């Protein structure tokens, strides 16, 4: 087998023009074929490759531009959302403060209402006690008056005559009727 250097040396030795044959040296023929194919590709494919690269570059630039536009739009929407969030938080704080104020106001209204109710109940209690006291005093007066009347009648019956007795009874009945009208 020949070495690689031998195949490069054989480039300098070309068979004479009169003979035609196959070169069986694979490395020498492959290098020649590759260099011819690469030369043809570079010469003819340069425009196509340039067009492909330009198209790819344009797509990448468009993608970057679209991404930037989307990013800017997203940033703008994010800022708007943050502004709305801040506004909602401020409103929530106001509602919370108003709610606390309303709760505090309702608490004081309830406390005041309870005190008023307690005062009214105290007044009703005092009026009821005063009424019951007056009723008890009137009952005691009537009993005392009744006993005094009975005692006076007993004394008069024992000391008076029938005629004087009838006049005293009539006078007392008249006084008793007048007192009854006053108490009613």
Automatic annotation (TrEMBL):
Keywords linked to the UniProt accession: ATP synthesis, CF(0), Chloroplast, Coiled coil, Hydrogen ion transport, Ion transport, Membrane, Plastid, Thylakoid, Transmembrane, Transmembrane helix, Transport
Misc. comment: In plastids the F-type ATPase is also known as CF(1)CF(0).
Gene Ontology terms, MF aspect: proton-transporting ATP synthase activity, rotational mechanism
Subunit and interaction comment: F-type ATPases have 2 components, F(1) - the catalytic core - and F(0) - the membrane proton channel. F(1) has five subunits: alpha(3), beta(3), gamma(1), delta(1), epsilon(1). F(0) has four main subunits: a(1), b(1), b'(1) and c(10-14). The alpha and beta chains form an alternating ring which encloses part of the gamma chain. F(1) is attached to F(0) by a central stalk formed by the gamma and epsilon chains, while a peripheral stalk is formed by the delta, b and b' chains.
CDD domains tied to this protein: ATP-synt_Fo_b (cd06503)
One cellular-component annotation, GO: chloroplast thylakoid membrane
PANTHER family found in the cross-reference section: ATP SYNTHASE SUBUNIT B, CHLOROPLASTIC (PTHR34264)
HAMAP family: ATP_synth_b_bprime
Record-given protein name: ATP synthase subunit b, chloroplastic
InterPro entries on file: ATP_synth_b/b'su_bac/chlpt
Protein's job: F(1)F(0) ATP synthase produces ATP from ADP in the presence of a proton or sodium gradient. F-type ATPases consist of two structural domains, F(1) containing the extramembraneous catalytic core and F(0) containing the membrane proton channel, linked together by a central stalk and a peripheral stalk. During catalysis, ATP synthesis in the catalytic domain of F(1) is coupled via a rotary mechanism of the central stalk subunits to proton translocation.
Coiled-coil regions listed: 64-98
Transmembrane segments: 26-49
UniProt membrane topology term: Single-pass membrane protein
Subcellular location field: Membrane; Plastid, Chloroplast thylakoid membrane
Family under the similarity heading: Belongs to the ATPase B chain family.
């Amino acid at each position: 087998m020949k070495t690689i250097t031998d195949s490069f040396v054989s480039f300098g030795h070309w068979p004479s023009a009169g003979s035609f044959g196959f070169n069986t040296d694979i490395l020498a023929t492959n290098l020649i074929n590759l260099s011819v194919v690469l030369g043809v590709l570079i010469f003819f494919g340069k425009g196509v490759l340039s067009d492909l690269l330009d198209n790819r570059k344009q797509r990448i630039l468009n993608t970057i531009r679209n991404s930037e536009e989307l990013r800017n739009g997203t940033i703008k929407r994010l800022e708007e959302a943050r502004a709305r969030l801040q506004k909602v938080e401020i409103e929530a704080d106001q509602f919370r403060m108003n709610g606390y104020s309303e709760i505090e106001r309702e608490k004081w209204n309830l406390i005041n209402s309870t005190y008023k109710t307690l005062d009214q109940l105290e007044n009703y209690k005092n009026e009821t006690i005063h009424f019951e006291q007056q009723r008890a005093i009137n009952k005691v007066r009537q009993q005392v008056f009744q006993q005094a009347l009975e005692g006076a009648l007993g004394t008069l019956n024992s000391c008076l005559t029938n005629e004087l007795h009838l006049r005293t009874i009539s006078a007392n009945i008249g006084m008793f009727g007048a007192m009854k009208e006053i108490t009613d």
